[in-house]
Amino acid sequence: MSAGHHTFKQTLFSAVLLFAISTAPGIAVPDGLQIRPGFAELPSRKEDTKTLSLEELNRAIKNDPKKAKLYYQRAWCFSHQDKREDAIRDLSVCLSLDAKNAEAWLLRSEMYNMLAQYAKALADADKAISLYPEWSYALGERARLFCFRERYQQATADAQKALSVDRRDCRTMAELAAACDALGLHQKALDVATLSIKTRQEDDPKQLNFSLHDRGLVYMHLGQFADAERDLDAALDKNGDDSTALYFEAINYAMQNRLEEARNCSDKALSMETFAPRGCRLKAEMLRAAGKWKESLDYYNRSTSMEPNYAPGQMQRAQAHLALGNLTEAQSAVAASLSANPDSAMAHSYLGLIEELQGDQTSAQQEFDKAFALTPDLAINNVNHARVLYHRGKWEEALKDCDAAIAQDAYLPDAYDIRSLILMKLGNSVESDRNAEIARKLGWHKWDYAIPSPETSNQPVAASAAALFAPKSLSPKPVQFAPAEISEKKRWVFAAGAVWTDDMFIDSRIARGANSDCLTVFARNPYNIDYVKQILARLHITDRASLFKVVSEILEKGARQEFNEMGKRVTAMSQTELQRFKQDPLNMADLERTDVVLQHYKRLGAKSIIAFDYVRAIDIYRLGACCGLLTDQETWDRILPIAIKLQKGFNSWNDIADDFVVGRAFFYSGPVNGEKVFDETLNILKNDPSSPWKEIPWQLAGL
User: Fold this and answer.
1) CA distances, 123 to each of 115, 685, 696 (Å)
2) Of 203, 289, 478, 548, which residue is most buried, by most CB within 10 angstroms?
3) Helix 84-97 and helix 68-80, axial crossing angle in degrees, nearest 10
4) How far is CA 296 from CA 301, 689, 697, in A?
5) pTM for the full model?
6) What is the DSSP letter of 473?
7) Of 569, 617, 620, nearest in space to 593 by CA
8) CA 25 from centre of chain
9) Are the C-beta atoms of 131 and 102 separated by less than 8 Å?
10) Count of C-beta atoms within a 10 Å radius of residue 157
């Protein structure tokens, strides 16, 4: 297994934010200070002062030691000389003289944060915001602090509030992207990072690279390495000496096993790095991404020796030790991380895992209780707990923890890796291999140390245990969104496709028509995308060209062409001819379809079984969007005209259902594997009060 990929995400985003904060320009003001956005709106900024050098400030303070503003100005100078303790001392004096100086509270918060004194940093940020609750910059800074402390929901709330005040604040967008990414909301993180790129292109092209770093990192977490490389290459095209882009490019290469390219980028970045701890840390991350644990540990040790209070760095070192089986050293590093950040749910969960492996189950459980209490929705908590249960031989319980982790973050390779090991223990080698391959595609590398597990389970196996780990157990669940998040028009179109289950979806599909609120039918994640590709392969769809070919044939001919041809032929027969037709051995295979045609052909008339064809066409386009064969806009542009034809050709949801049922019976000409699921789905769609067919009127205006 690999070290915790979740920490890999968090610490890389932390590096981006710290680098951006240390280099981003401020706004020039009359007194010569480089202040942050939003300061000009504060009352204390309205008084103009002349520019003062550090020497002049020293003399001014000696002459007027009770003037708070002078201490603030000198603290600002100290902060830009990396004299953080001196800055904190002056800011404390300033605040003792003027407790309502919000700028001083926030600057001291930043200094405390850079010294890894997170609790003090957060307290000062709270004070600044209490003085000016709508100060967008301070809200963004507090969001960053919440990210460092793994309080991602609070970080998201602060960042969103800040952006409601200043919608073009790209630094706060970076914090929002980091929080969303840590919570497993990768598409949201990608959207925010893309918006940041667009905003910087319009407002501040010189700072564009910071946004390109952010989006490249999200792409890496999604396993979209080519997209990440494109963004990082764009950053390097703008600035070939961009060490952050070089580091991230190196990590991106390493995750793809392009080791020579990774080392070249990393060595070049390290040669130009001005902050040695960060350089060593990112070099170690590259080596870890390549699975080079011993080499990575050497650089982690160098980094933490220079920056012992940096909690994420200590966690990275702990995971490298764990990957090598150095349990005592791993425990010590986690303890150092918790000393700097006691509220780290991730650190508590790793400490719980280490104590479990050391044989202390009581202490292990206490650490997991803390982890889940601090951040219940952190996927790595469930992954580490699954590792504990795997170690104890409680494989079915461990599998449930893995599934919970995947539900929280579908792109966390740790979850697929441990799930692969559990499934192998449970005897499901096919699904085990599949999960291992997903982990590999997401950049996974094995630990040198293998967590021991008994050969037989230490828990009773229920009679129905096979159902727990059969391939269908992880069939993708349709994503659900609040109806308010999409238009009624889109809900109508998606609801039209809700009836297609058939044998392809017997494991998974349409619990209560939930897919009516999702363009792509299933949430986009590695497992679902792989599942959808299997569905499309059965329809002979492997790329855009084959997708368009299959759908075109359905729309132009579909099942209705054969239905109509058979209908014309058999309905023109006399009773004697029909009896002879049915008795002919060559027609025995078509007897059930013949009965369907005889019963419904004349009744359906010109509309034939067009609903069966059109509904399938809509959903095939949507499945194509799920695995990237179509963009969302392309999909919508293609399915809307089909939906309009359905609405014009039928009178109600029940009318379309009746036509679909006939088409389905004709198409399959015999018992269908998913008959029970189809019947249950149809019953729900027709009768459940929460069904989209009950909530959305058939004759929706404006469709």
Assistant:
1) 14, 52, 49
2) 289
3) 160
4) 9, 57, 60
5) 0.66
6) G
7) 569
8) 31
9) yes
10) 17
